[in-house]
Structures are given as structure tokens and as C-alpha cells.
Amino acid sequence: TNNYAMAKLRTGMAEHGQAFVAKEQTAGKGQRGKTWQMAAGQNIALSLIVKADKLKQEQQFLLSMAVSLGVYDFFEKYARPNDRAAQAGDLTKIKWPNDLYWRDRKAGGILIETVFKGMQWKWAVVGIGININQTRFNKSLPNPISLRQITGNEYDVIEMATELYSFVMKRIEKISAQSTKKMVKEYNLHLYKLNEPVKLKKANAVFKTTVKEVSVHGQLCTVDTTERHFDFGEVEWVL
Prior knowledge:
By secondary structure, this protein is of the alpha+beta class.
């Protein structure tokens, strides 16, 4: 769907807010060249086009935060298990930089591709994949989960994609200089493993550190013997 949206941009047929949904993807894209796998007709695969000419180059992660919060809003609305003990607390989390997690398991992911003209940011294509009805996953996937596995309910994928779109666009339209501080605070409120020790991998070294926050520019900030700041792609989670 991201490729399709990019083609619209190249041919000059793109408009802000356009969205495309696929029932099946045979070559889904994930972060850092990874693939995104999904069963046909069971999950959301959506890409939307965002006009970004009012945003600055250094605000790229602000868009990522807005999209992540929109995805969080949507999933948290439904992701309530039947047992009362599990309902307490916020079980849906945003795993830096923009994965959707529920109880240490991956429910979705976001891939944002940007289009610049010189130094000016013109467009972004936001790809979102969320596991909705799928209950059997490829064994190569380490920790997947779907909404149906959480709730026991089955959903209309197109209706859910339409609702997801409205949640995400609502967040995107709120991006402004005044909203930045509030958005960063809210993103960190729902941050996966906030104030918890985690293992990260940089190059070939695995180390323990504690997650403290994500900065407005998208750096993961942690602390152990010293404060650390990591750019996207600099470290990997070891789960």
C-alpha cells in the first residue's frame, strides 16, 4: 500500500488524507528493510498520504508520534480482555520508535516514508499494519498477537480500518507548535517499558539500561551508569 501511495505522489495524483487499504499484501514492508507478514483478509494494511509542507525537516518524529498515538487510541478502545484482573491498567503500549505492543507482544507496526524537494518536506506516506482477526502466525515471528486473540471477538476489517483512519487523521490534524510539548508527554505516558530495565543491542554489544523517555526529536533516552541517547536504528531491542 505504501508503494501504491508513492506511485500516486510520483504521478501528481496525491491528495492530503488519501488512504489505501489492501486485503492482502504479498510484499509488506517493515522497518529497516524487514518484511511485514499478514494473512489475507484478516488484518489492517493501510497507507495514508500526508501533506507535510507545513512541517520542518526536524519535526519528522513529531508526525511519527502523532500517528503512533492515533494507532494507540484505536487499539486501546477495543483491546480489553474478558478477565477483570487483566483489564486494570494500560496494557496497550507504544514501543519506540513506533510499534504497537500489548502485554509484551506485537500487535502492529508503522512505516513512514518521506518525500523531500530540496530541503523542504513535501509529503509523507504513513503505512500501518495491525493484527485484527488472525490467530495463526508464522513461527518466525517472535511475539505476535491480534485483537481477536485478546478479546475473542471477530471484526469487520474494512470498518476497523475506516475507524483507524479517523483516529490517526485526528491526531495528525492536531500537530502544531503549541501541541508539541503535550504530544511528547502523552507519547511518553504510553511508552513501552517506561522506567523499566531493558536489554538493548548496539553493534555486537548487549547491555542493560533503564528507559526514561523519548525526546521530541525521537531519541530514546535511557540511564544506567550514565545517561544515553539513541537515534532510530542505532540500537535494537533484545526481548
